[in-house]
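Chain X:
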Amino acid sequence: MDKELLTNSVISVLKQAGFTISSRCDIRPRSFDLISRRGDLLLLLKVLSNVDGLNERTATEIRRLSKHLLGRPLLVGEKTRDQHLERGAVYFRYGVPTVSFRTLVDYLMQGVPPLVYAAHGGLYVRIDGEFLRRMRVERGISLGELAADLGVSRRTVSKYETESMDTSIDVALRLEEIFDQELIQAVDIFAPLNMEESPEQIDDLILRHLADLGAQVFPISQAPFNAITRDEKMVVLTGVSKFSSSMVKKARLMSSLSSVTMTHSAVIVDGETKVERIEETALIERRELETMDSISDFADLVLEKQAR
């Protein structure tokens, strides 16, 4: 399945699963292909036939965007190297959860979460260590006896119980056979991100002016907008550009993205424009920005132009 067909298939499944979907991001460079929402779950999706095509820089960008938009990154693909992605397994590409199309369908349409994840050396599962210990104690099985039955050390069994150490599929299945209980825990591909981020230098003079007004400005390099701007009132997908046909296209896309992410969008035009907004994206001239005294002035003007 090529990228175009795979992307259309992903969109179809998301719609059937009740997600609202943005317009496709067809502007390069881009770290994501589309954004979708269902309730409080916001997904930033990248679709690649071969997931090895996601490089570290792009992966870092989609994770940063997800963090600042309170979303979750997800890569959907078919293969890695010369192997197809296993159904029911989660891979991680530079920290971005990665699944096959079939795994996505199983989870979103059937409610069947993946149970296996890939790491160096093979496929692994996570077991409920606290439940394992309770079952072992209730049945009077010693650490040594269980270790011997599994073919592992007493220390390993202890780690299963106290540290929830992950294990191979064979060992996990043997444990479930011994206790006749489900011990394997599902992999949460939509778990909150744990990402440390150092403050990034703001090179663009217009974005720097926004920061001087009191906004939090997070520069973005692989999206239709140039930064995420935040203050106590709102989050704004912020572009900087001269007025052009390319800018109009980006503004329309930003409008769609802001609708799904429940944010606002604005382009600061380096020059003059008679247009107040493009769809829901406010257009603010640079000279208007330069007359502002605080970021609340910027937020108010964005809302005012969107209402016109």
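Chain Y:
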Amino acid sequence: MKFRAEMTEVVCMKQFSNIIEILSKFTKHCTIRICHDNIYFIILDDSCMGEHPFVWCVLEQANFFRRYVMVGLNQEFNEIFLEFEPDMMSKSLNFLKASQSAESMTVKLTNKNSPCLTFEIRLTSPTLARMCVQDIPVIVIPHKEWNSFVQPKLPDFDMVLAALTIEGLNDSLIRMDKNHIKQTFGVKIALPSMKFLRNVIERMKTLDNQVHVTASTNGTLVFKVETIMADMATHFKELSVINDQTGSSQKTVSARVDIKKLLDFLSSDQLNPRMVTCNIAHHKMIELTLNSQDVDLHYVLPSIDR
């Protein structure tokens, strides 16, 4: 197996560092799937739909790398699966977010007594040029375990709530191809901004570790926590109902999810998303999707029964 890729755009290096930092908040261990056209970051969680991923992040390699060479397991299975610690990688790349001196970054699969992803970052200044090398230990995942990291098949969702930032809703919803998770839904409702929602949920976190999310076709969205001492709810009313294909007069769907995991996702707005959607399968799960120009992040939260 062989992998070597080079970035030369500062914006791409910072965005890559942001992605790894966000993943480090989700888990201690992450899998990177390296393919010819895309790079996937996959996180498994036994509590979320059994063996299926609960985080599925897709990067189109052409948007990040100037040079990209990879040779997989063999001609039939031309992919590479590696497990790594995102926190270690994030700390190694953290300085890229503030640095203006990074000229290029090369990442390659190496063997230094054990498999590693080696980052070679070339730094320049008016008087000095130097190379910073970071080795991130990885575990090569054997082919027999690849089925655990397949693209998840999610149920049909009863409702999707969408938040736009730059592009129109229709253009963003159409932007689904073979690399993206597909599902159907009957209702589309406008969603408040991620930053505003994060402030609301952070206050609720002081009361409980679970939040009940309810949405209805009349344009109402409710976040609620319930405790023995008190209940707290935030109601968003008269949100735009963009499309309703259910044919019913009114429909309400809800799911109760882990509040900390929801906050982890809401902190990923540093990726500058063009669109964020919240797909709700009644009493089953919530799937949160972030779409930016160069990355798609899918985050699945199972519904929790009291």
